[in-house]
Amino acid sequence: LTQIPADRLEQLHQQVAQAIEAIYGDDWQQDAVLAYHWHRAGAADKALARYLKAGQAATRMHALVEAREHFAAALQMLDRLPDTMDNRRQRVDTQLMLASISLMAERSVHAVARMQSSELLLDSLREAGEETREDRVRLIKIQFWKGRGHYVNGEYSSAIVCYQRASEIAQEID
């Protein structure tokens, strides 16, 4: 495989992904394999969709290590896609999914940092006049997971501030 030119290798991965889709259709059990092949084929949009599905399936099966790997790969695919409002929202949603399964598996400072990054993305949507009600709901979830991260880290007053902010936002959109 090391002697195959990179562009030919991408073509082969694309052909494998297309063959799997032709044989299995939208079978969720193929999502991780398809994500891998679309990723190697350079099709970030298709890889993203499959990584997200694979992460959600792994989460449902409580295979949290695999779920975290799939969501992390999805974030890498988002790095390769254009910086659109929808992709910013997808990044926030993916980071929320990752936070929901990672808090006990990683240091809470990482989870808090991830949520702060997501909050900045939502701020950019608001500043661009693109904020929706769903974005406000995302912000509530961010505040919850930030609070949870602070709580796990023993930073109780910071946790309370986050939980209060989540409550305030919920009352605003109610």
Description:
The chain has helices at 6-24, 31-40, 44-60, 64-80, 85-102, 108-127, 133-152, 156-173. Helix 6 (108-127) packs antiparallel against helix 7. The model has no long low-confidence stretch (mean pLDDT 94). The termini are far apart. With 174 residues, it is mostly helical. It contains eight helices and no strands.
What labels describe this entry?
174 residues, mainly alpha, 8 helices, elongated
Largest sheet: none
By secondary-structure content and strand pairing, the structural class works out as: mainly alpha
Order of helices and strands: HHHHHHHH
Helix content: over 70%
Number of helices: 8
- What average pLDDT do the residues reach? 94
Distance between the amino and carboxyl termini: 57 Å
Assign an overall shape.
elongated
Unreliable spans are none
Give a count of the beta strands, DSSP E runs of length 2 or more. 0
How much of the sequence lies in strands comes to under 5%
Question: What's the gyration radius in Å?
Answer: 18 Å
What's the arrangement of secondary structure elements?
Elements: H1 6-24, H2 31-40, H3 44-60, H4 64-80, H5 85-102, H6 108-127, H7 133-152, H8 156-173
Summarize the structure.
By secondary structure, the chain is mainly alpha-helical.
